[in-house]
Fold each of these.
Amino acid sequence: MPVENTSTKVTLTHPKGSTAEILLYGVTVVSWKVNGAERLFVSSKASLDGSKPIRGGIPVVFPCFGPPSHPDHSKLAQHGFARSETWKFDSIIMDNQAGVSVRLSLEPNDHIKSIYSKPFSLTYVVTLAEQQLSTDIHVGNPPTSHEALEFQALLHNYIRAPSDEVKVSSLKGLSYYDKTEKTEEAKANAKTETRDQVDVKTTTDSVYEDASLHYKVTWPGHGLEIRAKNLKDVVIWNPQEEGSKIGDMEAEGWKRYICVEPGFVRGFVKLEPGKFWIGQQVLTVDSE
Ligand code: TA6
């Protein structure tokens, strides 16, 4: 069955053998296999029972990135609610040689309404091709709404790769904000990236602004490319040894991934009533 749907998980299988697994909890893609090899990192200590956001895979960050900084988001937890709510399976969009594609949706339920008062519509489309995974977040501001919807969105990819060898390009020349700096003032001061290839051999938590929308993630003998649309910024994160303080991180888990996260996180998307916005990423495995 190309699309298998249980009460907790949707599994996509492409005719050429690639697979993807999406938990309805947070619509977190927790597995993406191409040529039999897993491409995403999920901590073996991640809670998969809906008690907390998944430590790994592709969590969806919406409507705020990091701790809330907009008055509309003041009651929200870090990275918003999309990653910690149970979504609904909506429909199969496509099921053929080109790809297997499903749509999932999240309605404002009572819990969301208690922490977030803005009307919105939210759907997520996941498409699996032979060597490729696309994930698109669709945000709508209902026509009945009286004001613009202001939000941030980000796709928090945990890419399985050796963190002491992996490199990301092309970020050279971009402004970035270094969240590992000690003071708020230093965090708010933009730096300029001078490296042709960025590594995460030391603790890294960098928010690149107005980036290229095309990133190469490579390590010896392997690589993948990420193309983004409407997600103008990109975050590179790996905590190194600091990762041992993360409760649901497996032992030395930070050695096995790099987060490369396309998002709209500097400033806010402003969506007028009756309008839609789509943020998209396409991950493609290099031929091996
Ligand atoms: O996207 C990078 C980041 O914001 C880091 O600052 C780091 O805290 C990470 O996300 C994980 O956040 P989480 O809330 O999942 O522990």
Amino acid sequence: TTHRIAVIPGDGIGREVVPAGMEALEATAGRFGITLEFDTFDFASADYWQRHGTMLPTDWEETLRSYDAIFFGAVGWPEVVPDHVSLWGSLLQFRRTFDQYVNLRPCRLMPGVRSPLAGREPGDIDFVVVRENTEGEYSSIGGRIFEGTERETVLQETVMTRVGVDRVLRFAFEQAARRPKQHLTSATKSNGISISMPYWDERVAEMKGQFPAVRVDKFHIDALAAQFVLHPEWFDVVVASNLFGDILSDLGPACTGTLGIAPSANINPERDHPSLFEPVHGSAPDIAGRGIANPVGQIWCGSMMLEHLGHPEAAAHLLAAIEKVLSYGPGEAPLTPDLHGKGTTAELGRAIADQVRQA
Ligand code: NAI
Ligand code: MG
């Protein structure tokens, strides 16, 4: 099988971790008889913005639409382009235009990685956050009136559609049904947000009828945030609206160690459009250019991409190689400084690619 992959390194450490991700992907593809054709694009970056005054070329949509997946680094370089411009001008366009309505973020405590939470061992924390990615609190409906006066008033509406809520819930229930624990947790706030959140709860209850094997519970978002930190081992699949999911999907990976290892996928489950795979972290201007960024988040994204493209065994093999190399610890493996080692991005990427070929 041949898959065409659009590669967008973006800014900062995106350009450093993406090559490591491609190397690991190529090693994995080679072992499993998969052909990956990579085309690299320079748009969705501060450089591109400096040269063209926009983040994307006018034909970006037809260009990217012809690919099976998008392998994305990170976008953002606040010295050159304000973050809301770089983000709305690129990633958010991709998510909405390609209807990537699921944002999937695995949170797993990996061997060799210290959790900031005391007493947790690898295996204790292993859950996924499923975030609604196209509607909800992140709508552009609203406005400002009486600007600059004492009556200044700002309004921004939450939008929940039945189709939009049901499709992300269905994806989350399907994930839960496939996992050993078959447990789904819904994030709500129906005690305070009295119109949209009770509707969300109602749709969860309705969907539950179609998945009798899945155990379902719900928490208000404030309590849920606390439980992520106090009892992360309680969770299996956590489904949330756009805003709640955004917060949980940063908190979850934070509980499992460094930001540098956390992956995410923006998925169009129907495969009508390409899905996009990107690490949770950004362009990290504070360490960019030094070759010390952790490439594991980007490489793990490669595993998620292989899974999405229909190669679960190759995906599992790559993930196992990541776990193996991390488990050697900073003494034996070239782990990057965020993992208390002295390795570089390229060295850690190479070690994982080697492990893929050997195992
Ligand atoms: P960031 O994730 O880039 O960095 C936060 C901290 O984590 C920094 O101290 C950084 O050095 C560290 N870090 C991040 N990734 C790492 C890695 N792979 N290895 C080792 N350490 C790592 O978040 P920040 O600083 O808030 O944002 C920087 C820029 O990135 C901004 O322009 C922001 O808008 C953008 N950004 C883009 C995202 C995306 O493309 N999806 C996501 C988050 C931020
Ligand atoms: Mg976020």
